Amino acid sequence: MSLNHPKSQGPNQTLSIVAIILLTFALMFCLFLLIRNPNNTTHSTFHESALQRIERTGVLRAGYAGFPPYIIVNPKESDPNKRVIGFDVDMVNEIAKRHQPPLKVEWYNANWDTLKADMLSNRFDFLAEPVYETVPRAAEIAYCEPYSYFGIAVAVVRKNDNRFKVWKDLDRPDITISYAQGYVSGEYAKQHLTKPKFKSITVGKDAFVQLDDVLFNHSDVGLQDVPTVVQYVKAHRDKVKALWLEKPPSTVAASFITRMEDRDLRDFLSACIRIMRVDGTLSRLDKKWKSLGHFERIELVPGEGIRELSAKSK
Predict the structure, then answer these.
(1) 154-248 topology per CATH
(2) What stretches of the chain adopt beta strand conformation (E)?
(3) What are the boundaries of each domain within the chain?
(4) Are 102 and 60 in contact (CB under 8 A)?
(5) Which of 27, 92, 156, 241 has the fewest beta carbons closer than 10 A?
(6) pLDDT tens by residue, 208-230
(7) What's the CA gap between 150 and 24, in Å, rounded?
(8) Judging by DSSP bridges, how do beta strands 240-243 and 154-158 pair with one another?
(9) pTM assigned to the model
(10) Span 50-148+254-289: which CATH code?
């Protein structure tokens, strides 16, 4: 016969039941987490940033679409990393060379029509071209510090057309102005000119298609940015001419672009641009490639300590 009274085991039995319930609940919760996250990762998993990936792999992935003389593409070159040359290519190579340890640059072709999707797909780290800054674009992509400024809405007209002396002369109802759909020059013209007939042209990868409309006498005026107009007029010097190249009606800033979330990479590239502006690298590349933009003039003044010392030494 047992010497223990049955009621004396009540509290122990209760604790055992509670422990079993808690253990069962814990096991069920673990099973739930395993089903939801089979790879056993959690939200606290470390997220590698773009710059951290570049530092870890030693590879800087640059996208390009083509914009001479900043990105000049040789379609006959089979090696994608030898296919491009130009002002921006030298800029990127300079950044990679100065990094410690030096970085390897890989180039990836992008398409202007699918640029946003290409950026989001993470095929490359940044687009290494002078992308024009606009308010709508700034809401979707992030710009590095500008390294050049470009004139827009300059005109291409036929060689014998002398009707337009200043840009406001375009505001007349008897002319047709062609512009490239989605380009900043056309948007600027539509905001500031009310009388002309506007003709929107889809250009795809070839912005010259829009200016052909003037060449073939389908439009009176074609408006484009300075780099595009300069190249087009050089190719058709006997048939067309450019207006207001040196004093364009408006100007836009331009720089490399990154994904919005890649702030560390953007800060790094912006710092590199400032360094190359101050140490004369951008000026050297301008002379080499005969670039078609404008640059900020940096004016440095001596600090008071320098001035005081200079005054005493006289």
Answers:
(1) D-Maltodextrin-Binding Protein; domain 2 (3.40.190)
(2) 59-64, 72-73, 84-85, 104-109, 126-132, 142-143, 148-152, 154-158, 176-180, 197-201, 221-224, 240-243, 250-258
(3) 50-148+254-289, 154-248
(4) no
(5) 27
(6) 999 999 999 999 999 999 999 99
(7) 69
(8) antiparallel
(9) 0.80
(10) 3.40.190.10
